Amino acid sequence: MGDIYNQNLAGRPTGNQNLTANCPLGGTVLITGTTGYSSNTGITTVNLNYDMSNCNISKVASSATVTLTLTGKLTYTGSFNSATGYNSENFQSQSLTMAGTAKRSSYADAQISQSCSFSESVTASGGSGSVTGLICGRSVGWSY
C-alpha cells in the first residue's frame, strides 16, 4: 500500500483526494479520502479508502517474496514521518480477495487464493518497528 501512496499521492496537495490510479504492477485503484501534513512536526496523516480492481503488487521482506493480485476495498488510516522513521498505520478490509504466491528461500511456494477480512497495524520509531495483524483469521506479525 505504501507503493500506491508514494506513486500517486506523495507530493500532491493535501486535503480531499479522489483519483483513479494504476497499481504498481498492473490493475487499478480508486483512492478517496483525505490526507494532511503538519509542517511543525513533519507528520503526514492519512484517512483513505482504496477500492482495488486486479491490483498487482509484490513485496520482498527478508527472505520472503509475496506477489498478489488484490480486489476489494481497503481502509488506510494513520500517520507517519519518513524523515524520523515514525510510523503508525492501520489497514482494514472486511472482504479482500487475494490471489498469488508467497515464496521463502528454501520452502515450497505457498499458493494464495482467498477472500476474507484483513487487518494490519504497522508501528515504528527511529527506523525499527513491528507489523501485526490478522489475515483470514490467522495472526501474522514480525519486527524490523
Total strand count, please?
8
Task: Give the CA-based shape.
Answer: globular
- Integer-rounded radius of gyration: 15 Å
Which stretches of 5+ consecutive residues score pLDDT under 50?
none
Main sheet summary: 8 strands, antiparallel
% residues in beta strands: over 45%
Helix content: under 10%
Number of helices: 1
Structural class: mainly beta
Give the distance, in angstroms, between the N- and C-terminal Cα atoms. 17 Å
Order of helices and strands: HEEEEEEEE
Mean pLDDT: 93
Order the strands across the largest sheet as they lie in space. Answer: 1-2-3-4-5-6-7-8
Overall description:
The structure is a single chain. With 144 residues, the chain is mostly beta strands. The protein is 5% helix and 73% strand. It has an eight-stranded antiparallel beta sheet with strand order 1-2-3-4-5-6-7-8, with no helix packed on it. The longest helix has 7 residues. It starts with a helix and ends with a strand. The model has no long low-confidence stretch (mean pLDDT 93).
